[in-house]
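S., here's the first fold you wanted:
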Amino acid sequence: MGRPVVHFEIGCRNLKNTQEFYSQMFDWKPQSMGPAAMIAAETGGIGGHMTSLGHEPHHYTIFYVDVDDVAAYLKKAESLGGKTLVPPVKISHRHLRLDAGSRRQHCRPVEVGQLKS
């Protein structure tokens, strides 16, 4: 079985217009949270968010994939022609994750990296 996508991010120039579009398109109900709008997971799906950075890139999409070893997957991506833009970084705060099969919440440290294909 492949690694699951656990979150998505939609970057845009105009957050209000983007929220309206996706609300009408998919019946999403974005909730404002600071400079972003959170999109709750629907049955059988995952949650995500929309954000307007206020600078380039204005339009982008990011898929967050759950892996057990970020450094190993970045190395694998490089072997396939990808390029690491940001090496793995430990985040000091905890990331809250809701397991898909239950309503129990688990907190765990997160390590993130970024690559470009």
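And the second, which I think is the more interesting of the pair:
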Amino acid sequence: MKTIGFFGDSFCAGREPNSWCVLLAEKLNARIVHWGEPGRSVWTTFFKFNQLNKTNRLPDICVLCYTAVFYVIQNLIDYIIHL
């Protein structure tokens, strides 16, 4: 069975049965060996990825998730505009 790893913040940390990470792993018939972590920055995400790469421990499939820097601010602006 292939392995899959999710690297990023809370967007790819959901372990619930209906989370997109779990559903994607099932669709690809892959075992999840790495999850994203809430609050993880882009810097620490790539640092962890690079550590696993250097030790030849990356999963067969790697999914890198990047939440936009201004995501929260943009959502707030959109909300205010549409009031």
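Why I say that: Helices lie at 20-27, 42-54, 71-81. The first helix runs from residue 20 to 27.

Talk tomorrow,
H.
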